[in-house]
Amino acid sequence: MKPTESELEILQVLWAKGPSTVRQVNEHLSQTRDIGYTTTLKLMQIMHEKGLLSRTEEGRYHIYQALIGEEETQQHLLDRFVDTAFRGSAMKLVMQALGNSKATPQELEELQKLINHLNPENNEPDERL
Amino acid sequence: MKPTESELEILQVLWAKGPSTVRQVNEHLSQTRDIGYTTTLKLMQIMHEKGLLSRTEEGRYHIYQALIGEEETQQHLLDRFVDTAFRGSAMKLVMQALGNSKATPQELEELQKLINHLNPENNEPDERL
DNA sequence: AAAGATATACGAATCGTTTCGTAGAAGTCA
DNA sequence: TGACTTCTACGAAACGATTCGTATATCTTT
What we know:
Two copies of one chain form a homodimer. Chain A is mostly helical. The first copy, chain A, contains six helices and two strands, in the order H-H-H-E-E-H-H-H. The first copy, chain A, has helices spanning 5-17, 22-32, 37-50, 70-86, 90-99, 105-118, and strands at residues 53-58, 61-66. The first copy, chain A, has a two-stranded antiparallel ribbon. The longest helix of chain A has 17 residues, at 70-86. The relative contact order of chain A is 0.10. The model of chain A has no long low-confidence stretch (mean pLDDT 91). The interface between A and B is large, with 44 and 44 residues. The structure holds a DNA duplex.
C-alpha cells in the first residue's frame, strides 16, 4: 500500500503505458537512469508478491499490470506527506505549492471553480451547480 | 539537504521548540512513538555531522539547533514530492490536496487572495497591490 | 543441431536508516 | 566517599530497499 520510490517509478510507467513486460518497463526506466534489466525484473517480482502488480503469463513473457490506481495512490502518498512534512496542514502545502508554481490561467480558473464549490457561501457567486 | 523521515521528526521539534537538548527532543518524540534515548542521541549526532544541526556545549549538555529553515525545507521536499508522486504537476497536487481537505472559510479566503495575485488579468478585480 | 539472444528465478552483496547496548565521563545526593 | 543518575561516544545489530551475478529454460537464427 505504500510503494517505495523505485516502486513508484515502475507504477508511473504502468499507469502511463498500461500492462507491460519487464523489458518495456526497463526500457523506459533506462532512459532516465542507469538500471539493469534484472534489477527491474526483481523489483517487479517483489511488487507482484506484495500485491501491487498482477501478472499474466503470455507464452514466455510475463505481463504486469498495476493493481492500485494512480489517483488513489497519489492521495495516499499525499496524506502521508502532509502529515510528515507539513504537520497535517494541507492548506499550508497548497499555498506553498501554488505560490511556487507557474500555473496557467486555465489551471487557475479550474482551481477557482473548485474553491467556489468548497465555499458556496462566501465570495462572488459564479455559477450554480 | 534531504532529511530522512526520522530526521524530519527531529527538525519539527526543533523548529517548534527552538534550540533543545537531546533529552528535550526525545521527551517530545516519545509522546507519539516508542523511541529510546540513545536512538535520538545518535540521530542528532548524525544530523550534526551532516550539517543539519548546530551544537553548542553548555556545561555537560549539548544544545542542538536546526541549521535549515522550516519553509525552505518544506519547499525542497515539496518539489521532490511533486516530481516523484505527481510527475511534476503541482496543479494536480494542489487540486487533490484541496479537494480532500476541510478548509475553513478563512483559509479559503486567503487562498482566494493568492489566486488573485497570481492571475491579475482574469476574474473579478478584488484589490490592487 | 549448435550458437546466441532473451526470458524468469533466485541468492546474495551493498547501502542507508534506524535502533540499541555498553562504556566512560561528569554531576548529584545521602 | 560511594551509590545513583544522567550525560556523550561509539560500535554494531537489524532492517528494508536496491542492485546485480549467475543459473536455467526457452525461443530464434543459421
